[in-house]
Amino acid sequence: MVTLAEVAQHAGVSASTVSYVLSGKRSISAATRTRVERSIRQLGYHPNAGARALASSRSNIIALMVPLRTDIYVPVMMEIAIAVATAARTHGYDVLFLTGEEGPEAVRRVTGSALADAMILMDVELQDERLPLLRDCGSRPAVLIGLPADTDRLTCVDLDFHATGALCVTHLASLGHRELAVIGEAPAVYERHTGFALRTLDGVRERAGELGVRVLHRPCEAGYAAMAATLSRIFDERPGTSGFIVQNEYAVEPLLTVLRQQGRAVPEDVSVVAVCQEQVAAQASVRLTSVAIPAQEMGRRAVELVVAKLTDDPAPEVALIPPQLTISASSGPVLRGTHREGAP
User: Fold this and answer.
1) How many domains are there within the chain?
2) What is the pLDDT of residues 298-321, one digit of tens each?
3) Does 120 lie in the same domain as 21?
4) Residues 332, 187 share a domain
5) Full residue range of the structural domain in which residue 41 is found
6) 286 and 303 part of one domain
7) Same domain membership, residue 335 and residue 208
């Protein structure tokens, strides 16, 4: 491995001059700088990352806080995390993953040390306990992947989940469905007031009210038994339910299986629209009409926003990604004389 001393010898300058060229801490003549930079290229010298960090008071690390909970679909979280890591490398940053459920303590750990230059936070709740700390730690720029209730002085990027819920209702209503059910995330997700889940539900209810469509919302745990119980409850309460909006990847295949076991065909008897990963929609036993989670775009844009904060310090902003509905085999028009008119 080429050393700084070898670069200095090759360029005919002192080691401190090479260091000043690298750090920019002192003015070096254009001729000397050119000579040193030429030697760096010719020898293939790469500055030690730790030394560079000490010289610049930067770690060149972004902390990504991604609590891995059992009630959240982990593949989506990891797809976003990988997108963050990949985008960060293109900007010269590494990523420190903080996966525990530490909440404010994790923020304090980063802001109170030189662990990272900036933070990206996921799994954002409407009244997230981490937010007051973020607003007060100007020395550590932060970006949220998610939307809290109050975005004042915060920079956020997210899918527009409110518009997502409204779009799903609009599609089903346009096909003639007047009785809808939302099969949601596990109950704990709503109990924590997780932003994406509640915003979707708000969008569903608001649009349903505008269109005169009735809606039931039922959270659902993972597994076929939980799905069977949830579906039984829905049809007991609203026998005419003909459209389902699913925001729970763990529930997608159990729903399709239980419907099939009950003799309800998709989309002839009931229609299903999902908010999920593209892969989940494509690989389901019935190809799903769906709004995809733009995980890679969310991760990439979060990195761009946090890097901008580290370099230009722009004003806080909220970047919402418009939802896109892909129509496929799981949704169709209401057919009279089928199970849509009531229980089988």
Assistant:
1) 3
2) 999 999 999 998 887 788 899 999
3) no
4) yes
5) 4-56
6) no
7) yes
Q: Tell which of 36, 56, 76 closes a domain.
A: 56
CATH code: domain of residue 39: 1.10.260.40
Same domain? For 95 and 168 the reply is no
Q: Which strands, in side-by-side order, build the sheet including 94-98? A: 94-98, 61-65, 118-121, 142-145, 156-159, 318-321
Q: Return the higher-pLDDT residue of 10 and 25.
A: 10
- From the centroid of its chain, how far is CA 63? 15
Residue 339 has pLDDT above 50, yes or no: no
User: Region 213-222: what's the mean pLDDT?
Assistant: 96
Contact 77, 66 (CB under 8 A): yes
User: Stretch 50-73: mean pLDDT, rounded?
Assistant: 74
Contact 184, 190 (CB under 8 A): yes
Q: For the domain that residue 269 is a member of, what is the CATH number? A: 3.40.50.2300
Confidence of residue 41 (pLDDT cuts 50, 70, 90): confident
Q: What is the structure's pLDDT at 340?
A: 41
Within 10 A of 115 (CB to CB), how many other CB atoms are there?
15
* pTM, full prediction: 0.81
Residue 232 and residue 92 in one domain:
no
**Is the pLDDT confidence value at 344 over 50?**
no
Please compute the mean of the pLDDT values over residues 256-278 and round it to a whole number: 97
**Judgement on whether residues 170 and 279 belong to the same structural domain of the protein:** yes
Percentage of the chain exceeding pLDDT 90? 66
Residues 83 and 206 grouped into a single domain = no
